[in-house]
Predict the 3D structure of the following.
Amino acid sequence: MVSIAINKGHQNIAMLGIGAYRPRRIVSNDEVCETLDSTDEWIYDRSGIRNRRWVSGDESLRSMAVAAGERAIKNSGVDRSKIGALILASSTWPDITPHGGPTVAHDLGINGIPAFDLVSGCGGFGYGLAVAADLLRSGSADYVLLIGAETMSFSLDPHDRGTAFIFGDGAGAVVIGPSQENGISPAVWGSDGENASAIGQNFNILEMMDRAESYQGKDPETDPVGRMLLRMEGPRVFRWAAVTLPRALASALDVAGVSKDDIEVFVPHQANARINELMKKNLGLADDIPMANDIENTGNTSAASIPLAIEEMLVTGKAKGGQLALLLAFGAGLSYAGQVAVLPPAPTEASF
Ligand code: UT7
């Protein structure tokens, strides 16, 4: 029997650079409430959101992903020719086929590398970080560009009290590569399909296929198949989060071999400031540990929220490159992924 060669990967890896893109248009709670039956006070009190950003003009998921990726590459100082794989974490790339990774890689001048999409709802960045880390550790790539990018605004029903005020658009990216000391722990990740229906579109893919069939021979201009609108049973997700996420956070510390006292920064997914305050308290993190609160002015940007939140903390000085952070992504699926990671250096080219 011939012996088949195996890759030799890098065990010590880290986020070497970060980049982000925030859409130009800032949408206040008051503007959302021009259509939605709600108030600025209710929205801020229940979610911690004051503003979100929505794409406008020539901005698109593609342009945001490329801008964030470009900045992450520049800020990392890594020559783009060394990037061996691109992961696009997104649930809102407009086409199922073709998926977005190859197009984004082409736009970034790294055409030809393995490039693929990773769909895991708001858990997308955590899942992407886990997959990227494993690609590096197995030797499948020396450097990976991970981009989380979303245009959530396209699938919002402006009258839906459960979603219209929550979601925003944006993109964040990191370059991950070898480092002297290890900067990314093993992931603690999982899913709960029993609660899958808590976040989803208003019709599923099988219904879509049924509709597509029934639309055969019809003019799409006069018989549109319709938009896929996002629905969320917020209180159900909240209850699931309260039980599942504290366990995930404790396990993440455990597998990383660090204690909660070692954690210098807490970066949970920006779904709801109240959930995050509760998690921080329940985990017993000290009051003065900085916690990401990018949701206040960026909204919930799903798979983009963690890199956007890290970038905001680094640019404003709330956190510093090299600090030890606890990351936790969670959302549709339902799914979650947590890691302990060393923050990348503050970006020289920032998104604001
Ligand atoms: O990113 C993916 C992961 N997602 C999450 O983690 C989301 C988790 N869930 C949440 O963030 C929260 O459930 C929401 C912010 C979505 C909603 O907050 P809530 O505190 O759970 O509100 P609720 O749905 O339990 O509603 C409470 C009250 C109800 O009135 P009554 O029955 O107490 O009189 C609702 O009718 O608030 C009312 N309400 C609203 N009022 C004004 C519900 N939505 C609205 C609204 N504006 N938009």
